Amino acid sequence: MSAGDWLKRNLFSSVWQTLLTVITAAVLLRFFWFVLDWGVINAVWFTSDPEVCRAATGACWAVIAEKHRPMLFGLYPYDEHWRLVLMMAIYLGTVVFSLMPRNWNLRLLVPLWCVAAVSIGVLMFGGVLGLRYVPTSEWGGLPLTMLLFTGTVLFGMPVAVLLALGRRAPLPVARGVSVVFIEALRGVPLITILFVAVNVFPLFLPAGVQVDKLLRITIGIAIFFACYQAEVIRGGLQAVPRGQYEAAASLSLTYWQTTTRIILPQALRICLPAITNHIIAAMKNTSFVIIIGLFDILTATTAVMQDPLWRKFYVEAYLFVAAVYLFFGYALSLYARKVEKWIASGRI
């Protein structure tokens, strides 16, 4: 089919479809011209003088160049931002290396992540090697968002698998506990869980015992994530054909051998798109920490834009934050699609 035939069949096959196509094209052209005119042609890209931006008719991208450090790094001491840049390089390098199938070896990944975790901890906390000590209350920006997200996934995924298995367990007690846990926490807003982690949980601790606020929040988000992810994994477990269980029984495999070697790998493959969806949602859910006073990248940007000299250009600042979320979310989505192709081809 030629391009002309395709256009005629799909866009101009009738009078009404032709009219709808023309109207839609006109609206899209108008929108794209506005974006080009406002965001590129008449935009101000570099200036330290906000009055230059006020006199312009386009976007003021200079606000990002002027405020990018507090937006990206929050309350972290200004002179120590180099530590966060190095920390993000180590973190992203370790993640990218770990996601390559040829590197999926526990003997390689466990030591790598241990070294990376220690390095990140030293850079973030300091207090050793001549580095200034920085408490978690001063952490912020993109590094905090990434740490919250990583902690949520690393802690939440194993809990989600256990809850999903528990909900289908033959033992009534395990099944009942899993059902109550999942349904109770799924019925509570994430904000409520954060408030409980910050304000209520410390009341139950013995006198003199303290748990770091950031750790409490990470565990709270991770448990919330695990309850939703558990239902996704349970759907995958239910989709595994009954014959797989019967084949495992014929080989005299135990429950845990059947689950870990046969059933669970198939279930995770089946529900991979839904798992990816919840992982991306978990990254965006980290922005809820604005409610309890942590300065992730969104909260830091909101605080920075209180500057009266640059407050008018909040749209450009939030578009920058949106681009950061879009970049990481789209990267996760692309990787998940790649994994699906690897599975279909038998590579993994």
UniProtKB/TrEMBL annotation:
Q: What are the protein's UniProt keywords?
A: Cell membrane, Membrane, Plasmid, Transmembrane, Transmembrane helix, Transport
Transmembrane keyword on record: yes
Membrane association type: Multi-pass membrane protein
A single Pfam family, by name?
BPD_transp_1
Return the Gene3D superfamilies for the record: MetI-like (1.10.3720.10)
Q: Which PROSITE patterns match?
A: ABC_TM1
Q: What name appears for this protein in its UniProt entry?
A: Amino acid ABC transporter permease
Q: Where is the ABC transmembrane type-1 domain?
A: 142-336
- The domain of life for this entry's organism is Bacteria
Chief location category: membrane
Q: Where in the cell is it found?
A: Cell inner membrane; Cell membrane
CDD domains according to UniProt: TM_PBP2
Q: Which family does it belong to?
A: Belongs to the binding-protein-dependent transport system permease family. HisMQ subfamily.
Ranges annotated as spanning the membrane: 12-36, 81-100, 112-134, 146-166, 187-208, 214-233, 288-305, 317-336
